[in-house]
Design brief:
By secondary structure, the chain is an alpha/beta fold. The protein has seven helices and eleven strands.
Amino acid sequence: MAIARSRVVVGYSRYLVHIADLTAGKETIATGMTREEERCRAAIERADAGEIVALVSSGDPGVYGMAGLAIELAQRIAPELDIEIVPGVSAANAAAAVMGAPLMLDYAVISLSDLLVSWDMIRCRLKAVAAADLVTALYNPRSKKRIRHLEDAVEIFLRHRPSTTPAGVGTSVGMPNEHIALTILGDLLSLEINMRSIVIIGNTHSRSVQGWFVTPRGYAL
């Protein structure tokens, strides 16, 4: 295990709390939210000094995680640094497994956070995947300040899919307080959704099968 081999573990403070049983006896470096570059720099500088360092992300480090930033910064700071990316389970896959099989066919993943990508660009992508009838997983669907984004997204999808299209919300997936709710597109906004949630919207062929959210792949049954 990468963490077991490391002498230094760097990560968002909330994540390090969750893996405290793995970091006993190790040096930990924690920072708050939105300080990703600071964490990456600290990890790279310590690794460049000869330490074995684990930089922790949630989910999969290559899906809205730290892998890309780490590679970009390392290219500038320590281009010869040996980097290993350990795959994980992204929230879309973890939530889908609990909901059933909504991602059985082509799907898209879009973050509704406009912190690093403009809302105009996000809307453009939402319109494209909605029109293409792709099952869509929405990351960062709603925050205390960002309320209208999810409402706009649902409005876009309703232009291309029936209100009865299956949808699901997974909150704190994989944690002790995990909550999964299956619904339909037309009722999605009535559910409690926050930054710890992921939303999956089915395509026009998705359906409910004995309480499971399923997107048929097309087998002749």
